[in-house]
Design a protein that fits this description.
By secondary structure, the chain is an all-alpha fold. The chain has a single domain, classed as Orthogonal Bundle (Arp2/3 complex 21 kDa subunit ARPC3). 74% of the residues lie in helices and 0% in strands. α2 packs across α5.
Length: 298
């Protein structure tokens, strides 16, 4: 096994560890109440969530810093791309400030448009950073810092982290439709719009878990400690249908409309940045080897 292959394997293993840490930490934030004894109404969700916030924020920001430090040494991010990420996070934070100052209809939010596109073009780790940092910075700008923030950051990070799964789907769809271009623009936009549609509902459903176990409401909509999995899902579905469905329909529709209206020009602009700022690091040995191969073939 060559030294370069070994280094790539170690890099992949470390990247996977970062992904798993981010994913499992987020699951812990959202799901740990379901494994606690019955929670009395006197304690409430606010006091419990406020107590966990400093720890989870430290973990989450540590993960973001780790990703930045690791990727800045590799081929995914360089200083220019980190600067671009900072600009995009600032733009998204400004959009959220405008959204807060001039509330849109229902659950519509423009911030997921860029999170989805950045994750799709630049990869899952960059997408995770885009989502998590957007929520962190915009919370500081809008005064939205609270015990709900770690869950928001993790969930928005997951939106960007999962966006790259669309790339192989777009290639297969383009090949099936016999397009000349490797990734047809129309195929991409349709897939991205469907992805935004799905996450409009998924984001709301996940964020409800931040408070649902602690809410005292109608018996058929509340969480009861010791319920089986099927009963828990039934109660949650009833709660979601009553409290969140209409809100999330608006959020999902907003994602679709933004991607359909602005997706093509935004993708073109981001691709230009990606091509201009991307680089491939090669050792002197690999460059010499490739030059030798060219000399043989010529």
């Amino acid at each position: 096994m060559s030294e370069e292959t070994s280094k790539n394997m170690k890099s992949s293993a470390f990247s996977l560890a970062i992904y798993l840490t981010a994913f499992l930490s987020g699951l812990l934030v959202l799901l740990y109440p379901f494994f606690l004894p019955a929670i009395s109404p006197q304690t409430g969700f606010a006091s419990m969530r406020q107590g966990q916030m400093p720890v989870m924020m430290t973990v989450l920001l540590g993960i973001c810093l780790l990703v930045l430090l690791f990727e800045s040494q590799g081929t995914v991010l360089n200083t220019k791309l980190i600067a671009l990420l900072g600009i995009l996070v600032a733009i998204n934070s400004a959009l959220r400030f405008i959204e807060t100052a001039i509330p849109g209809p229902g659950g519509f939010s423009p911030i997921f448009f860029l999170i989805i596109l950045v994750g799709y073009l630049f990869g899952g780790r960059v997408g995770f950073l885009m989502g998590a940092l957007t929520l962190a910075v915009s919370a500081l700008v809008t005064g939205g810092v609270g015990p709900w923030l770690p869950a928001q950051m993790f969930t928005a990070g997951w939106v960007g982290m999962t966006a790259p799964i669309l790339k192989p789907l777009a290639r297969v769809a383009s090949s099936t439709l016999q397009r000349k271009k490797p990734l047809n623009d129309n195929v991409e936009i349709v897939l991205l719009a469907l992805f935004g549609l799905a996450w409009g509902f998924i984001y709301g459903a996940i964020m409800n878990l931040w408070q649902w176990p602690f809410i005292v409401g109608p018996q058929n909509q509340s969480y009861v400690s010791g319920m089986g999995l099927v009963s828990t899902l039934q109660h949650y579905l009833a709660f979601y249908m009553v409290t969140s469905l209409v809100w999330d329909i608006v959020a999902a529709a907003g994602n679709v409309l933004l991607i359909l209206a602005l997706g093509k020009p935004a993708l073109r602009a981001l691709r230009r940045f990606h091509q201009r700022f991307g680089f491939r690091y090669e050792t002197g040995l690999s460059v010499a080897s490739r030059s030798h191969e060219r000399g043989i073939t010529e």
